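Hi both,

Apologies for the delay on this - the queue was longer than expected. I finally got the adenosine-5'-triphosphate-bound model through. Below you'll find the protein sequence and the ligand SMILES exactly as submitted, and right after that the structure tokens for the full complex including the ligand.
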Amino acid sequence: MKSFSVKRSSTSTYGSLLEKIEILRSTLRWASKFERSEIQNLLQQCNAIRDETVMQFRKERFVQATTSGLAEADNEELEPLSRRPPRRVSAAQRRQALVDRSFVFEGVFGESPKLLEALEIGEKAAPTDLPVLIDGESGTGKELLAKVIHANGKRAGMPLISVNCGAIPDNLLESELFGHKKGAFTGATSDRKGMFETADKGTIFLDEVGDLPLHGQVKLLRVLQSNELQRVGSDHAINVDTRIVAATNKDLKVLSEKGEFREDLYYRLSVLHVTLPPLRERRDEIPLLIEFFSDEAAEQLQRSPVRLTPRLRHHLLDYPYPGNVRELRNIIFRLSCLADQSADIEHLPETVRPKTDQLSKLTAGVSTEGLSLTEMRKHASEAAELRFLEQGLHEVSGKVVELARRSGMSRSYLQTLMKKHGLSAKGFRVQRDSS
Ligand SMILES: Nc1ncnc2c1ncn2[C@@H]1O[C@H](COP(=O)(O)OP(=O)(O)OP(=O)(O)O)[C@@H](O)[C@H]1O
Ligand SMILES: [Mg+2]
């Protein structure tokens, strides 16, 4: 049976994908029966085509986003010289340049200058063996950037070992990182490699490096200085060729000033220092990320990309995202899982919903530009429903039974409407109490 490599290729084109589908088709057309192993092989080929198509699709989206930005940049060229702003390389051009240089993005998406700067530093750092320190708030993409640095360098085919320095109990730390010799301590029944040796020729990602206890910091410094380590209980030095990328959401400089992190280790680790900006400092990217994650969720959940009601979109564009990109991604995956066609406030986790008193402003304030007449009618009717509920619940201090009695509507219908608008009776009780 004819088959092709199932290895993922980052350079596949639609032409080569079609060719593979044709090979598959002719195999199926001419075969009268298949053995189990042949079916397995065919399935593998189908999976390979699917994976390549997904990769090609992602790359296209990236290029598309890039070229739309380039068109804007090109238009600038039509301005007379006197009115032209000083030549700046646009975000789109910088991103396109990365694409042209076959940069491996590992799923990183975005176009803020600070993110692009981090990617460009990552690109330059990748082929070297210099240690890189990545800092930034939780959920800003530090681990993702570590993957990018590994994937773009000469160590890409070798292991990338991730260690959460804060999660290893103190007494096991040295053995986990550097290994141990048989009999070094109770329970050490055989020689064992540590994570540094496992990552030999590859990269070790030291996550939450700020949580590394001082005795671990001393050992780490020694490896950084000499490229050698000693397993616990052994006096034999072992050479290791492991590239170090470390991450933290703490300020190591401040920790070192307080004596909680060794200053010499800080300088060794931060030969290249990259800070990832929180999402609130790159709000312009939120619409792009919403679209990106909706597509990703649609792909994973085998559904069409979730649509957001105008008021939900408005709220998501305004929300502060203390959990950064991770929080935004989680929200979109949740909406994609819970909502049918279109998602609304009710599908948000409670902690993310707008406050009761913001809801009607949000609904009323949403732009209806570009909506069809049917959509505008729906929007107006929802805004009226919401105003009715808010006023009514306020008057009865959140007692749904009382509102049902006064309005002649059933309690369960009122509750359905409240759920739809993400309203909770409790919110109205609290309001009355605190006034
Ligand atoms: N620019 C981005 N484009 C696409 N996905 C992103 C981006 N930044 C972060 N993510 C996604 O957000 C989630 C969190 O990213 P990551 O684990 O790298 O963050 P982190 O900074 O290491 O967080 P923590 O400090 O909590 O460990 C992941 O699912 C990651 O894929
Ligand atoms: Mg992390």
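Main takeaway for now: The mean pLDDT is 84.

I'll put the files on the shared drive as well.

H.
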